């Protein structure tokens, strides 16, 4: 199977073919090394919660796909850890993303959304990714971590190089990693000198008061992961959701009339076009059977969240966007102990972003026949979303 070609250009068609013919398939991974791709819902969900499938790269067999190559100061993060280290680190930050904490952020998130829409004016044309879907989550997560405005401008360019590397610029990803490491090293040093009421200052205090709870590399890696995941996933969720609604104008009109349906719509939109094609790679610590296929210890396993979410064995008519369906159990944000830490925040941001957008504009239509998707196996998102818009009426 041409992973790079079929999955990038037509992922849902490719996944449907694999579910029907080879639900556990040996493939060439994103950088050419061998891996096993799993596409059926029951297999993916079970594997996500299987403790024998390790995220620790030391359990990878020689020659297997290992994912991004990062320096130690960025690599010691939750996406490369198993218990007990994973449990220890996650516990340190989980309280920042509880539903109660997120509820307290809803009003500030709405103010940010309204401010971004104010800039657009009463009518016109814009790229909704650049003008809205990207700056909203980067502002929210940077405010939470305590990152000043003047340090935010380069972050999207750096993450683009990691998520969707340009084959013609092989050194760009390494340069982006180096720039991010320098950024976080300097930021943490600054926060040590000037602590504030923010999550990063709290984590630095934990590190400096009790090094057994958090090493310096773990501190830097955690800041890197929170900023990266908190930004990237939500950009895709917002952009993909708006694109899906623009492709279903009757549903867009319905949600404008009845915004109380937005929480259910967010779940269905995440199932229908989630932010990730694949979960983070895993390595069996022993020979395991997935579906009816035996996967040797150490070989890379790639679990397709996108394919699982469109498995007709779990969701009836999965290719249809249906906000009246029960979309609970979708895997867009993972499952098991590695379930997305920031899921409550991501859900709130998407719901608020859509509510503000639909309330503000009486007319919102695509400005191009089909937007361009990011050429990536790691993230399912749009490069741009050109729209034409018109305001609903005068604002107070």
Automatic annotation (TrEMBL):
<dbReference type="InterPro" id="IPR036396">
    <property type="entry name" value="Cyt_P450_sf"/>
</dbReference>
<dbReference type="InterPro" id="IPR001128">
    <property type="entry name" value="Cyt_P450"/>
</dbReference>
<dbReference type="Pfam" id="PF00067">
    <property type="entry name" value="p450"/>
</dbReference>
<comment type="similarity">
    <text>Belongs to the cytochrome P450 family.</text>
</comment>
<protein>
    <submittedName>
        <fullName>Cytochrome P450</fullName>
    </submittedName>
</protein>
<dbReference type="InterPro" id="IPR002397">
    <property type="entry name" value="Cyt_P450_B"/>
</dbReference>
